Amino acid sequence: ISDQKPLGCWSVKHGQILTCPVVCNFETHEYIAVHDDKVLRIWKNEDMNLDKAFKATLSADVYRIHSLPQGGALVLFRGGAVRTLDVLLEAPQQEIENLISAEAIRWSGAFMEGQQPVLIFTTEKDRNFFVYVQKPKLSSLHKYKLEQQGSAKPLCFTAHITNQTVTLLCLYSNNSVYQVLIPLQQDTEEEEEKEEEILSKSLLLNLSVSGAVLKGISLVVLDKDHIAVLGSLPEPGKKPKECLTIWNTKFQTLQTSKELPLGTSGQLWCYEEKFFLIHGKVLTVIMYKCETSSLAAAVGKLKDSQTLDVSSFVNWNTLEDEELVVSFQSQESVALKAESRMSLRSNRSTVAGQSGPLSVGQLLLRLKDASNYVVETELKKLMAKAPTPDLQATIGCVVTALTDRCKRNPKFYPQNLLQEIVETRDLSYSLCPDLMAVALEQKDLHLLQMCLERFPDIPEEITYACLKAFLSVSEDHLKSVDVNLDSAICYVDVELNDMEVKTEILENGFGEEMDQDMCDTKIPQERQSVGESCPVGLQKAALLNAVLHSAYTETFLLPHLKNLPAQQAVLFLRYLYYLYVKCSEKVNTTLPGIRSPTINQIMDWMCLLLDAQFTVMVMLPEAKDLLSNLHKFVRAQVRFYSELNKIEGSLRELQRLNHLRESQTYSIEVLEII
């Protein structure tokens, strides 16, 4: 997310509008969207075109789709009716009842109570607010009226279910949070005939920060004792400051807050112990962990010696590169742990006398000046720990601390340790963003290869820098470098027999005669050797294969490739052409080996390189033969597959006859293919 790398993109036609948020169906791993209020679209990640995705036109307008991990997808219509997605797809045009005429839905949420999904939504009519609780699978519906609060009105809602009771939290315009308890009722005839019940509410929290009143915009529940509120604090004569605040509702205290100077969209999401919010133009993700609440933790008076090295409240970092970074560690309090970087300030006076395992803050302090042996020992202890939800983030912070030290002191570079961490841990670029930059400075080609093969979110600028470094390094130097050769050792040949190449290429439809027939020119003898031997050594081939495996977005990579030096571009194209020929030698177009490039990766990079460097290639004399041979080879391939398409029907008929024929006796048959 920090690198803004789109992994998938789908769009509706011009004039169509997505009218509710897209969700993912946990059971089928499909996306569900609604455009123009009534048109349902369902597709999978590998589907490229939304127009070809499943389409169903419904009989009523959809307000929201909710997806539950074990309860499937629920569709809430603007009229208040709810259907499970499975029931709706059986008859998309089924009649949908209107339960809330003249009322407008303001909020909805879906939850699981045991094995039953429960959908809750609030409506507004004439400044009166109503709460509906539905169990779609049981056809159960209960309506309640929310008690009025003078002139104040609800701005947003959130809820959770515990022990058969719905806890509805309401953020009101008077800058207070109220709590409403709704028991989940069993359906009886008396209940159905009963008039709507008026729900009383109790004051949960006044949003006051240092005497100023927080004007809340959005809130989410973290656990039974903590909530997060996104809002703004007014300043005399200045623009209000937006901030994210964490509150302890049990003891009515502000746990922590952080200003968001770049502004937000006013929306705050919480999912699987992560915050999601828009800060400036960046979607920011913050990991958090809630632990048991206590009065000492709520007021910052913890006396436990194990936590003296860490501030008892959240220690927020500055907003670097428009990315919100939070770290917090405290026993029996809210703990926010950032995915990308964590900076914990330790109490230096307690570090020396501390016994037992080091905390994260103490470990980071120790890594600043410790010897290589101490660093290696402490990190091995850390990696030997049992997996915990925040262990990956902790290791990412440790790697960041090591790379920071490498930048301060170029002589310090724990190469083996960094390689071991990358090899054994599922890290990502965003967890340790400076690691590859330091590896480039140190010319650690093996570590760069490992990162390219394992990190899913490498920025295109870094991918290009690795490509340029691999192409520029000399073959003699690479012979002394430890590189993983598994992706290239099975097919890279330094010298090939001419007859072998010619025979294998003929298997897939390309030969000298066909090429001459198409181009009406005789191929010079010296050009026949193009593609017969790899233009780079085995080590460099393995490094380039790692680049081919790296994920990228064409729009972001193309400007960098235009800056690739001409000689390096020609060398890279020669290697891609070599791989293309190698793939075409076999019917299944698959290279042997582990993590070998696929035909699609080779073609995509070849097209990308030609788009970026075409003018340069055309002007370079040494690229003329390469482009000519590439053109001939591709044209021969097109012709070969075109000929195959012509006899496809006959081959299918032959296959059908072979299935019908009994092969008990020997026979010779002549089949005429027309």
Automatic annotation (TrEMBL):
The keyword Transcription regulation applies. InterPro entries: NOL11 (IPR042859), Nol11_C (IPR048897), NOL11_N (IPR012584). GO terms for biological process: maturation of SSU-rRNA. Residues 362-672 form the Nucleolar protein 11 C-terminal domain. It is found in: Nucleus, Nucleolus. Residues 1-289 form the Nucleolar protein 11 N-terminal domain. Keywords: Activator, Nucleus, rRNA processing, Transcription, Transcription regulation. GO terms for molecular function: RNA binding. One of its GO terms (cellular component) is nucleolus. This is NOL11 protein. It comes from Loxia leucoptera. The gene is Nol11.
